[in-house]
């Protein structure tokens, strides 16, 4: 007799978990936005001023670990090497890929505008790989960059054009959590000749087990609903944990004291109408209390991960203008550090 698998969890059209442990990440929401979650093949020829390629950084348990590279076309008068931005994608630790169109459209634009090389690892997903798996992947990518800097690993684009003394971590949503965790881990080791110059968490998934006021009052959006917050983290956090875990609540009592963690300068990017802005601000206030170098930038009237929504960026003047402002602010932060 063939066992018919049963649905255990359905998360807002993004993910379905079955009783045999299998996971279906096929998008089942509105079909008109399906193109944003489709993979974009790499292209080593320059398109709109940017080339991309996927690189295997290592293998473990017969699984290849990959990164996607974005290289802007080098200008004839560009003499200095380019900062390297290590990007961690979001998705509640459970969904999304580094090659999805929503990331491709933003990071090609960002790479071209900010004059940086972007390195975006393909992170393992929960629930098949619960945390800290995704953070381990992010940190191992930083160590791979160090090995390229020392010459023990080969990557021609980075070696020829990358400035390893100016490496920045950037991540959206749960990727913002990875920014903080990787930065904290990096403080315990020597990265020479690589230098971690800054961290840029964008709309990070900093939360606590009790609902914040913004969770109760701010609008839900396709990129963040309370259903996603609760279910994704229930699938991603270590068994027996809740949102007070240090990964999701780095400003909480269960986390290592921020006073004892050596961190690079941070640019914390927030959206005024984000469901979780209150707890993100709690993190900012905790950092300021410990006299950490952190500045905050807020996009007015915007919701969680608004800049990844290509339809809104193109069709809504306010979203387009706020995306421009976000890119300009991050670019300035990188130039200053």
From TrEMBL:
Pfam family for this entry, one:
Abhydrolase_3
Q: Which residues form a coiled coil?
A: none
Q: Which GO terms describe its molecular function?
A: hydrolase activity
- From which source organism is this entry? Lupinus albus
Q: What is stated as this protein's family in its record?
A: Belongs to the 'GDXG' lipolytic enzyme family.
Q: Which domain of life is it from?
A: Eukaryota
Q: Sorted alphabetically, which Gene3D superfamilies does this protein's record hold? A: alpha/beta hydrolase
The protein, known as: Putative carboxylesterase
